[in-house]
Amino acid sequence: MANQEHDLPLYEKVWLKRTFQRVMDAFMLFLLFLLLSNRLFSSNTFTFPCFLAFICESWFTFTWIVILNSKWSPAITVTHPDRLLKGVSELPRVDLFVTTADPVLEPPIITANTVLSLLALDYPTNKLACYVSDDGSSPLTFYALVEASKFAKFWVPFCKKYKIQQRAPFRYFSSVVTTKSEQSPEFKQEWSRMKDMYDNFSRKIQEVTRKQIPLQLDGELAVFSNTDRRNHPTIIKVILENKDDLSDGLPHLIYISREKKQHQTHNYKAGAMNVLTRVSGLMTNAPFMLNVDCDMVVNNPKIVLHALCILMDSKSGKEVAFVQCFQQFYDGIKDDPFGNQWVTAFEYIIRGMTGLQGPHYSGTNAFHRRNVIYGLYPDEIEIGRKGKLGEKILLMQKLGSSKEFVKSADQALDWKTNFPNDTNLSDFIEAAIQVAGCEYECGTCWGQEVGWVYGSITEDVPTGLNIHRRGWRSESCTPDPIAFTGCAPRGLLTTMIQQKRWASGLTVVFFGKHSSLVGMLFGKIQFRTGVSYFWLTNWGLRAAFLVCYVAVIAYCMIANTSIFPQGLGLWIAISLFVIYNIHTLLEHLTLGLSITYWWNSQRMCVMRTTTVWFIGFLSAMLKLSGISDTVFEITEKEHTTSDADGNNADAGRFTFDESPVFVVGTTILLVHLAGMVIKLLGLQPSDSGNGSGIGEFICSTYLIVCYFPYLKGLFGRGKYGIPLTTIYKSAILAFIFVHFCRK
Ligand SMILES: O=c1ccn([C@@H]2O[C@H](COP(=O)(O)OP(=O)(O)O[C@H]3O[C@H](CO)[C@@H](O)[C@H](O)[C@H]3O)[C@@H](O)[C@H]2O)c(=O)[nH]1
Ligand SMILES: [Mn+2]
């Protein structure tokens, strides 16, 4: 811990005043309550559709309370790295983790760039160690890392000498188009040398990736011959070792592919993170660990110092378990057509959570305390861990049978950060292979109380909840420039698959023992924090209610009945709709986002909630009832430097294929189109119902407008059109729905 008794704090928390937003949020809530009470007290025709609408609207009101609560007290943190550097005699070690799992969906050149950006961090290199976990067990990834380590010997000194901000070479070379005239000839010369070297390096990798040049599986790569990614022994390779403990050399770089066995669950990313934690515990045992996905490159080379300002602050830092940096993206498509930049969510919800017990852990760009991951409680910092984690025997039961690992964990739990500098990494390989084995975790607490939590395909949220539950806080760190930037899905299908996974995983968390409700009732999750977590964990449930509402509206149109009360009730509903849109539009404009951006986000919100979140919800239900399991479908990452200037004709356009995720959306659209036709042509049964009115008409029109890309898809050709088989399937489903409505 930094010793700064009388000194200035290393970071401050600044609360933001967003009075206008609060007023608007509260007014919306008022209108929602008005709508509900109007339904309760004035309606004398309380039919079944009205009842369903009432239930859904109650849920929307609850969701609004969750959102309002999350946004109510936003805060930012301001960090002072200069004070940190003055205050501490020696900076602590930090272990850096990168996970990758598939050399096709996650091109090795991207992983190599991420690693290069980490190796070039502005931090003493003898305090850093970079561990790469490869669940794909790919010789390509390993080869790319070996080549990256050779290039790093030139790249890292170059970045540090010229104080380059972008330390992922592909980002650097795609942003600096020409060297500026005011720069020295020496720089220009070195710049072109670097550029040549990088081009060479990336060409080599591309050639083997595209199989233009076969990769010889001999020498260092021999271990990869005859390995099946689902069935192979542990592979651990030290690629770089800073043997002389130089603070201006290169950090350690270690490649790990944990053991896999055909019929053994490996818990996806959570499993990989736990192996990384144990292997690094043996080799370097840093008190702090940074983890990033393979596509998240460093954008601010001083980020470690910024994060440590929070974690090492002698006053409030002690309560902070992890520091989360926002997940921001490079090369985003203009106006975010697929709604996956999440700008408003970060600015409003996550900043809001920062004002409470802290942001949730979002899986990447986070600095964790190692001993918190091992299960430490906040009060054990002061009083020692005699009670809960005291005895060695107990530690063995919790952390597994490796004596070496338990010894290292024991030190970490006692904050003993002075790790011997005179050891060889290769001395630990044998022990590391043991802790990376399939059976190591059997009968231990890994994946439960210790480490990254298992059971959900969104491992990040329950892992964060498990930490908050013990009473820890977390903090956001958002320095300028942005800490990390990653690769957001660039196509509709990739976006949909990612969203489906999140909705499914989060629903499992909501109903599981790591839910925020359990944490509030039996743990130390503060009330408002627990409620703010619902913003995330309710995604699947939100879909269930919205789909129900959408179905009720369609039913009204088809069966000629109404859910909106006449007169005042209708006006309340219309004002809600108008004010909600103005409010969200203003929120976007305040952040400097365009009207198109706003509309894209509104429309994607409707589309993803009613389609993939709904499918995610259903798959979570199947998992929870034990019928089928969910799998982690990896998000495709594109290496976009070649068309960074946006020349890609498909960028932002909606493309479809035969994937079942498009059936739901097409069905919803067809049902509403049918409803419109039936209403406009007066084909509604006249004897039934009280007549559908303007309320239903507005809702249905809004939905069809949101679904306009699908409407275009119905008539589009090739990949821009929805395939006929999908249309047939949807038409059958829509027909069944319409048929039952008219009965
Ligand atoms: O079996 C697996 C599957 C995935 N991964 C890694 O997990 C990371 C995240 O996977 P990705 O496909 O990129 O998912 P995203 O939806 O983009 O990731 C978000 O959501 C995940 C939870 O669903 C979090 O773990 C991530 O940190 C967060 O960025 C990647 O580095 C993968 O290589 C593994 O290591 N092993
Ligand atoms: Mn990702």
From TrEMBL:
<keyword id="KW-0472">Membrane</keyword>
<feature type="binding site">
    <location>
        <position position="106"/>
    </location>
    <ligand>
        <name>UDP-alpha-D-glucose</name>
    </ligand>
</feature>
<feature type="transmembrane region" description="Helical">
    <location>
        <begin position="543"/>
        <end position="564"/>
    </location>
</feature>
<keyword id="KW-1133">Transmembrane helix</keyword>
<keyword id="KW-0812">Transmembrane</keyword>
<keyword id="KW-0808">Transferase</keyword>
<feature type="transmembrane region" description="Helical">
    <location>
        <begin position="570"/>
        <end position="593"/>
    </location>
</feature>
<feature type="binding site">
    <location>
        <position position="269"/>
    </location>
    <ligand>
        <name>Mn(2+)</name>
    </ligand>
</feature>
<keyword id="KW-0961">Cell wall biogenesis/degradation</keyword>
<keyword id="KW-0328">Glycosyltransferase</keyword>
<dbReference type="Pfam" id="PF03552">
    <property type="entry name" value="Cellulose_synt"/>
</dbReference>
<dbReference type="InterPro" id="IPR029044">
    <property type="entry name" value="Nucleotide-diphossugar_trans"/>
</dbReference>
<feature type="transmembrane region" description="Helical">
    <location>
        <begin position="693"/>
        <end position="710"/>
    </location>
</feature>
<feature type="binding site">
    <location>
        <position position="293"/>
    </location>
    <ligand>
        <name>Mn(2+)</name>
    </ligand>
</feature>
<dbReference type="GO" id="GO:0016760">
    <property type="term" value="F:cellulose synthase (UDP-forming) activity"/>
</dbReference>
<dbReference type="GO" id="GO:0012505">
    <property type="term" value="C:endomembrane system"/>
</dbReference>
<feature type="active site">
    <location>
        <position position="460"/>
    </location>
</feature>
<feature type="transmembrane region" description="Helical">
    <location>
        <begin position="20"/>
        <end position="36"/>
    </location>
</feature>
<dbReference type="InterPro" id="IPR005150">
    <property type="entry name" value="Cellulose_synth"/>
</dbReference>
<dbReference type="GO" id="GO:0071555">
    <property type="term" value="P:cell wall organization"/>
</dbReference>
<feature type="active site">
    <location>
        <position position="135"/>
    </location>
</feature>
<dbReference type="GO" id="GO:0016020">
    <property type="term" value="C:membrane"/>
</dbReference>
<feature type="binding site">
    <location>
        <position position="135"/>
    </location>
    <ligand>
        <name>UDP-alpha-D-glucose</name>
    </ligand>
</feature>
<dbReference type="GO" id="GO:0030244">
    <property type="term" value="P:cellulose biosynthetic process"/>
</dbReference>
<feature type="transmembrane region" description="Helical">
    <location>
        <begin position="502"/>
        <end position="522"/>
    </location>
</feature>
<feature type="transmembrane region" description="Helical">
    <location>
        <begin position="661"/>
        <end position="681"/>
    </location>
</feature>
<feature type="transmembrane region" description="Helical">
    <location>
        <begin position="48"/>
        <end position="67"/>
    </location>
</feature>
<feature type="transmembrane region" description="Helical">
    <location>
        <begin position="722"/>
        <end position="741"/>
    </location>
</feature>
<protein>
    <recommendedName>
        <fullName>Cellulose synthase-like protein H1</fullName>
    </recommendedName>
</protein>
